[in-house]
Amino acid sequence: MTDSPHDELSPGCVRRAQNGDLFAYEEIVRVYQGRIRAWVATHCPPSGDADEVAQKTFIAAYSRLSDFQPESNLGAWLFTIARFQLKTETTRLRRLADYHTRFAPDLLDQELERRTELPPETTSERFGHLSGCLKEMSESAQRFVQWRYSEDLPLEEMAQRTGRSIGAIKKQLWVIRQKLRECVDFKMITDTQGEAL
Q1: Which of 24, 89, 163, 182: disulfide with 17, CB 3.0–4.6 Å?
Q2: Mean of the per-residue pLDDT values for the chain?
Q3: What pLDDT score was predicted for residue 47?
Q4: Among 5-9, 41-45, 86-90, 154-158, which is the least confidently predicted range?
């Protein structure tokens, strides 16, 4: 059994990576990525993306590789970078939450007002297209929509059922809503163009 991950690296791996050998840096990533990702995942806020933070850690480390002293502890150096990347992500999420807290009510009011001004037939037409778009989605996406919007299932339970984090569930639902919106808009435009012909 090795004493540290650094012992798992081939001799001279860090020096070769510092000299531009991408295969040597790939070896460093392979040896440390599980530990870095696990640490980030345990410290990342629920709405954060641990994989993204871990990836940014290795990108930042690569760009600063010339600063690393090979006789130093590589793991400690990488974890310091991971800690900084996590702080940056946490700050970004805080700012985003602050922005939504301040501006979301106004934007929501504007959107609701815009939607209430739509003629009833347009709303009915959009619902028809929504039903069609939903049927075109994957079974997995349909199941997510069913759970969240028909059964009003809490995000926590959806996360348990799928074995994913709450953040991943939120992201998946956002992607599904975006795809449905794009599909409905496309069908509405297609209908309008068809009527113009």
Answers
A1: 24
A2: 83
A3: 73
A4: 5-9
Cβ atoms within 10 Å, residue 115: 11
- Which string of DSSP letters, residue by residue, matches 125-165? HHHHHHHHHHHHS-HHHHHHHIIIIIS---HHHHHHHHT--
Write the single-letter amino acid at 6. Answer: H
Task: Please list the alpha-helical segments (H only) found in the chain.
Answer: 5-8, 13-18, 22-43, 50-63, 74-116, 120-136, 139-145, 155-162, 166-196
Report whether pLDDT(118) > 90.
Answer: no
Q: For residues 173-186, give the mean pLDDT.
A: 89
Structural domains in the chain, CATH included, are: 5-91 (1.10.1740.10), 119-196 (1.10.10.10)
Q: Which residue has the tokens 């004493």?
A: 3
Let me know how long the chain is: 197
Residue 191: φ, ψ to 5° = -60, -45
Show the tokens assigned to 185: 């808009």
Distance (Å, whole) CA 57 – CA 62: 9
What pLDDT does 196 receive? 56
Bigger pLDDT: 96 or 131? 131
Residues 6+ apart with CB under 8 A from 132: 187
